[in-house]
Amino acid sequence: MLSSTRMYCLAGLGVTAASALLASYLRHRREEEMLWVEVGRVEDLVIFPIKSGHGTSVHKATATKFGLQCGPLTDRAFVVVLVTPEKMVHMNSGMVPMLATISAAITESSVVLSSPVTKATNSFDLHKTVQRLIFVGDPETFKNVARAPNVYPFTQFKNTDLRLYHDTCAFLVTSPSSLDDLNTRLETPVTMNQFRSNIIVSGQPAFDEDNWAYVKIGDSTILRTLKPRESCIRINVRPDSGKRQNEVLDVMRKYRVPPMPEKLAKQWAHKPIFGLHMALDQPGDIAVGDTVYAVRRKPEWFL
């Protein structure tokens, strides 16, 4: 007779296997039921060469498994690090708000950094907090998998979804109508750069993107929604000055907190949602003006 301990272990494994099978089944059902509808056009493509740095708008880009790429520019390919004898810490604009003002002009042989509050330089001194900016390795050697939250079983994540120095995943999709809606509630309007999105899609009402399960851009590029994007204190940092504008997060907490699922609503009460975290299903070239299609999610497609 099996011991109770062993029985519990087997039961646990059975539940895990069943959950994995259910997730796989739902994904295959989605692929069979996909109905693409036109939702708008690409209004802007933005690459952030430095994690937490200033974005660079481009007219065309390639959607790769690591994010947007245009010539020598690759999204979040650089990161500012604080090196001590004990450890190396990746810095962000929540820790050092002035990072949000730094732009990077990158060629095959050089990186020139600039900010509206200082002169251009080949290195960048952020006082005693950060001493220099460095690049680590070739993207192809990185196996950073998209990071799913522990608080909820988002079934859309796959272990083949990759990222570089992104916090969660390789793509963030938003819409200008959603930003316009937010700005009607703020005393001081903000720009999309403050939300650090890569692909801005115009043509639908505010927050229509909440219901997109998949996005197709042009003839080939397909992105899969992983989850809504939670907002943290970094969206309070203005990229033109590096100063914090606390009302942004405060206002969003009043109306961008979906009540369901209940477990996530508690987290979203502190981190309201704006935009979609997405991963690449099919690579391709995309450009400003390209037609964008979406598959709208169904109730059983958990987000």
From TrEMBL:
<dbReference type="InterPro" id="IPR011037">
    <property type="entry name" value="Pyrv_Knase-like_insert_dom_sf"/>
</dbReference>
<dbReference type="InterPro" id="IPR005303">
    <property type="entry name" value="MOCOS_middle"/>
</dbReference>
<dbReference type="GO" id="GO:0030151">
    <property type="term" value="F:molybdenum ion binding"/>
</dbReference>
<dbReference type="GO" id="GO:0030170">
    <property type="term" value="F:pyridoxal phosphate binding"/>
</dbReference>
<feature type="domain" description="MOSC">
    <location>
        <begin position="143"/>
        <end position="295"/>
    </location>
</feature>
<protein>
    <submittedName>
        <fullName>Mitochondrial amidoxime-reducing component 1</fullName>
    </submittedName>
</protein>
<dbReference type="InterPro" id="IPR005302">
    <property type="entry name" value="MoCF_Sase_C"/>
</dbReference>
<dbReference type="InterPro" id="IPR052716">
    <property type="entry name" value="MOSC_domain"/>
</dbReference>
<dbReference type="Pfam" id="PF03476">
    <property type="entry name" value="MOSC_N"/>
</dbReference>
<dbReference type="Pfam" id="PF03473">
    <property type="entry name" value="MOSC"/>
</dbReference>
<dbReference type="GO" id="GO:0003824">
    <property type="term" value="F:catalytic activity"/>
</dbReference>
